[in-house]
Amino acid sequence: MRPDSLPKKTIELLDDPTGLRGHIQSSLQAGNTPHSLWDDGHPIDNSLSVVFFLIGLYRRAPDQPPEPCIIFNKRSSTVRQPGDICCPGGGIAPRLDHFMARLLRLPLSPLWQWDYYRVWRQQAPQSILRLSLLLATAMREGFEEMRLNPLGVRFQGVLPPEHLVMFKRMIYPLVGWVNRQRHFFPNWEVARIVRIPIRDLLHPAGYIGLRLKMTHHGAKGGGGEFKDFPAFRFPSPAGTEILWGATYRITMSFLDRVFGFVPPDTGSGPVIEKCLTEDYITGKG
Question: 4-61, pLDDT tens digit by residue?
Fold first, then answer.
């Protein structure tokens, strides 16, 4: 299916940012209830991370209209998982984030302007307390990593948590719409900003298989075993980017809930290979 042969409703949404924002909020809310969202029993501690899944408008070329894109960070060589595409995020800063969470529960805040804020506050006040803390963390991390303006983001809703086995962490993705900000200023953790149009993510041709080999220091012949993962390949102006792992799963969860899109089976398609060293885990690369 080519991008210009998408379902008519999808094309209409991609061409109507206001309608798309409303559709995203209602689609995410349909999969969650205030009472069930946080019933996973996971405590707020150092094993919890929050990421901001950001959407914004961007022009591919000066003569083209802006279109909705997912705004990712590309991790720098000085952090763990260097070179990976990710969402801004991290762990909770107890004092600062608790203070910011109280501000988010005040009128006119990005959380207060969410269409379903009053529903959550009335039906499950404890859930809104936790949600405000996670949103405060996401906004702080976005500001630190890419100078995201927290007052210029409209909160859209939540996606299901992701459990990282390799790093023993639970990730809570929150969805935000960046209203007007077009320029970001990455810090030392981020090599650059990567914008992937949603229209491209809905095109099956971009999906590939990723065959990873984890090598070990001192192993003869670069010993290690291969593991296959689904991935998405995007030719950005700065080079080819590969979306895989937890960020890929979060993105697929968003596309499924909002557009009903399921990626193709990558088992019979193109496959690329990549080697990961122990530095990928330790961040010493």
Answer: 578 999 999 999 999 999 999 999 998 776 655 555 556 666 678 999 999 999 998 8
Question: Among all chains, which residue has been given the structure tokens 């950001």?
Answer: 54
Q: Exposed, middle or buried by CB within 10 Å (0-12, 13-18, 19+), for 134? A: buried
Closest CA to 113 of 37, 164, 176, 67: 176
What torsion do the CA atoms of 21, 24, 27, 30 make, to the nearest 10 degrees? -80
CA distance 275 to 214: 6
The whole-model pTM stands at 0.90
pLDDT in tens, 161-195: 988 766 677 899 999 999 999 999 999 999 999 99
Residues 128, 34 contacting (CB under 8 angstroms): yes
- SS3 string of the chain? CCHHHCCHHHHHHHCCHHHHHHHHHHHHHHCCCCCCCCCCCCCCCCCEEEEEEEEEEECCCCCCCCEEEEEEEEECCCCCCCCCEECCEECCCHHHHHHHHHHHCCCCCCCCCCCCHHHHHHHCHHHHHHHHHHHHHHHHHHHHHHCCCHHHEEEEEECCCEEECCCCEEEEEEEEEECCCCCCCCCCCEEEEEEEEHHHHCCHHHEEEEEEEECCCCCCCCCCCEEEEEEEEEEECCEEEEECHHHHHHHHHHHHHHHCCCCCCHHHCCEEEEEECCHHHHCCC
- 130 vs 38: CA distance, rounded Å: 8
Residue 212 CA: distances (Å) to CA of 52, 220, 230, 238, 280: 26, 18, 11, 23, 12
Residue bearing tokens 């207060």? 112
Q: Find tokens 């919890």 and name the residue.
A: 48
